Request: fold
Amino acid sequence: MSAKETSSTLDTEPIKNYTHFLEIPLKIVGCWDWFESPKNEKEIIINNLYFCLVLFVLINVPVTLYVHLYTEWVDVMTSLDKLADCLPFLVSIIIVVYFGLYRKEMYDLTKFLQREFKYRSAHGLTNMTMLNSYKTARNFGYFYTACTMFSVTMYVIPEIINRWNRQPLQSYIYMDVVRSPFFEFTFLRQCVAQMFVGLAMGQFGVFFASNAILLCGQLDLVCCSLRNARYTALLRCGIKHSVLAAAHGDIQGDELYNYIYNAAELQPSRYHYDQKMNHNILNTKTSFDIYSREFDEATCEALRDCARVSDVINAYKAKFERFASPLLVVRVVQVTMYLCMLLYAATLNLDMVTVEYLVAVMLDTFVYCFYGNQIIIQADRVSTAAYQSAWHTMGVRPRRLLLNILLANRRPVAVRAGYFLPMDLHTFLVIIKTSFSYYTLLVNVNEK
Reply:
């Protein structure tokens, strides 16, 4: 058996849960119930108590900081670094509260994905599965969560060093944090609060990126199925796959660099989407005329299947945008202000900590914009796939259906923050430019 055959994904088992890697981190930060469908009052109480505990820990730090600013307030410019410290906590509180209020919508979104997304493409000359896009989303989730935990660890280590040197904690709480048990309590509160902040902001990024990757994977399937629509019809009518591959194997040239995550394989598949094919109609005919009208009805059915999958993608994108859009606005505003304040802090005192914060915030913003841009790119390729679907061999009815699919996919598919700001690479540059503009304004105001 060749290496190509052993690496084939066509006979792999469908993914039962595409987003299982999100659940535990979201549960830890209170964005996902520990008991998704509580069966008794005890489980309901546990869900509510844990959610309140997370909010208490997160709210405690901004309140403490407010007291600190109130007692030692000089002016805005002097306290700018402390105001910047408060922004991540405020955004984390908003994220946790939002997930708590719209938990049902989040569950509906994930259930819609599990139920409606296809694992396999249409039975065509080339075939693909969602395995690669699922693995990419899962690996990104694990990697980003690990980075979040690493940043939390880097926050904890200096406090441990302070304790080793018998120095007080870097805290805004007015109490003796050198002696026990005040030190242990304050240290624990700071570590848990920092963990919740990292998970709240980091897991929303993972949530957005993983859903965007899976959405792109489904768009890959649509492009593959649409490009193979005529060949799907021939195969459904009993044409042998090897004969069709010998005559039209150049389809691989059209598919080159047209898929982001999944890979099309020039191998026969036993499935049409997620339904197993009838072996009685496979591999029976060895001669065919691709221009024959006898294949038009099967071509129409193949195009209708593509349109159904495309409708599922559009419906999921609308649900996903409706859920994520308000939080994306919050993140864009927070990042713009945070970068501005960090740049100003770097002007006053440039150190490695500030530089690391700047890089981390820009990379975090880049995640949203990059994966949002991936959706736009792959959705735009649906029209290219329709043009490469051997439309010149089809009759009038299939061509009309193909034209309807083209018209339905004419509008750009983008996830927008606040339903007006598309999350793409251009938006990333706009955020950076806006932050720098506000930074120069702060510098000029301070000089005057």
